[in-house]
């Protein structure tokens, strides 16, 4: 590659990254976000998450295991009316709930017409190819409930759901190196190296890591729900790319 072209690409990349910061900040500042979501911002650093995920207007985003919709709402605002957000509930979760109700759908909220709820298993059940598949603090649950086969199915489904060049981001509570199955189930944590191994085996390449939610004071030996460590666990954030 000739030097002028390389410099041009570097400049374009820097401009692209700089352009994401205002978009992320605007999504976080959205006045329609519930107070309960805003109360979690200091711990979840949503602007940094959106920038790391390279979310842009018009994109299709899959929020896998969306919970009460914290990130779903942020994605909805960021991608805008020309984009789409699919909040995918794992079939494994529905099996465990045994008919108990899920949180109210985000798509029913005013201004959230670009949000769609689906149920995913071997397929994420999204009708178009996505730019981003995002899963936050729950990859370990799929591994606990479905074993290695469960996360292998998820990773394969994420790969199939993405456009070439699309991103798959896994954010989760860090466990100690080599944490076994019993440790995962008891602590609701997972070994970062295991996640990398499993996702790379599905055909992804590791594209980036973010340290924004690291906490070196967390010994990684307490359950993530315990008072004092809840919302302050050491968390890894991995960005994978579909070649």
Walk me through the structure.
With 243 residues, the chain is α/β, with parallel strands linked by helices. It has a single domain, classed as Vaccinia Virus protein VP39 (Rossmann fold). Helices cover 41% and strands 21% of the residues. The chain has 9 helices and 7 strands; from the N terminus they run ααααβαβαββαβααββ. It has a 7-stranded mixed β-sheet with strand order 3-2-1-4-5-7-6, with helices on both faces. The model is unreliable at 1-18 (pLDDT under 50). InterPro entries: S-AdoMet-dep_MeTrfase_Alr7345, SAM-dependent_MTases_sf. It comes from Rugamonas rivuli. Residues 1-17 form the signal peptide.
State the secondary-structure class: alpha/beta
Predict the CATH topology.
Rossmann fold
DSSP helical segment count: 9
CATH homology-level superfamily: Vaccinia Virus protein VP39
**Major β-sheet annotation:** 7 strands, mixed
Can you give the mean pLDDT?
92
Shape: globular
Beta strand count: 7
Query: Strand portion, in percent?
Result: 15-25%
Q: Over all CA atoms, what is the radius of gyration?
A: 18 Å
Give the % helix.
40-55%
Number of domains: 1
Residue stretches low in confidence (pLDDT < 50, at least 5 long) are 1-18
């Amino acid at each position: 590659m000739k030097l002028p072209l390389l410099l041009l690409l570097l400049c374009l990349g820097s401009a692209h990254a700089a352009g994401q910061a205002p978009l992320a900040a605007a999504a976080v500042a959205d006045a329609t976000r519930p107070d309960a979501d805003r109360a979690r911002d200091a711990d979840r650093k949503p602007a940094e998450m959106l920038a790391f995920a390279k979310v842009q207007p018009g994109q299709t985003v899959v929020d896998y295991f969306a919970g009460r919709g914290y990130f779903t709402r942020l994605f909805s605002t960021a991608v805008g009316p020309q984009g789409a957000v699919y909040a995918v509930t794992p079939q494994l979760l529905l099996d465990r709930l045994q008919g108990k109700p899920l949180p109210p759908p985000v798509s029913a909220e005013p201004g959230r017409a670009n949000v769609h709820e689906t149920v995913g298993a071997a397929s994420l059940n999204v009708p178009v190819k996505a730019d981003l598949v995002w899963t936050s603090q729950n990859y370990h649950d799929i591994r606990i409930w479905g074993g290695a086969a469960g996360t292998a199915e998820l990773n394969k489904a994420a790969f199939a759901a993405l456009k070439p060049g699309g991103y798959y981001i896994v954010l989760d509570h860090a466990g100690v190196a080599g944490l076994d199955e019993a440790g995962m189930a008891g602590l609701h944590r997972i070994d970062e190296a295991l996640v990398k191994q499993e996702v790379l085996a599905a055909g992804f390449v590791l594209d980036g890591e973010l340290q924004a939610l690291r906490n070196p004071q967390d010994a990684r030996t307490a359950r993530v729900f315990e008072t004092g460590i809840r919302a302050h666990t050491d968390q890894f954030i991995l960005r994978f790319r579909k070649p």
